[in-house]
Amino acid sequence: MVRVIVRMKKNLSIIVASIVLTGTLSLTLPSAFADGTNAPAAGEKHHHNERHPAIHAAIRNLEEAKHDLERADHDFGGHRKAALEACDNAIAQLREALNYDKK
């Protein structure tokens, strides 16, 4: 029983951290790109050397948390459905952030 509680706390911590990361990115990325300071100079190609490791790690963590929630024997006090939806939304937002950077 104690292991289940510890695992549940770990999964929920990952979900909360990912949601916070998503919120932070959704607030900071648009303004960072809107000011034009990151735009390449005329005639210069934008190199995609940046791989955004934190975003990719957040997506992996969210997918793992979602998988754990789906496999769980219980519904976390009725919160599993909302947590799964939050994972899906966070993953979608992070993927949109990565796609936005490719434009």
TrEMBL record:
<feature type="signal peptide">
    <location>
        <begin position="1"/>
        <end position="34"/>
    </location>
</feature>
<keyword id="KW-0732">Signal</keyword>
<protein>
    <recommendedName>
        <fullName>Small metal-binding protein</fullName>
    </recommendedName>
</protein>
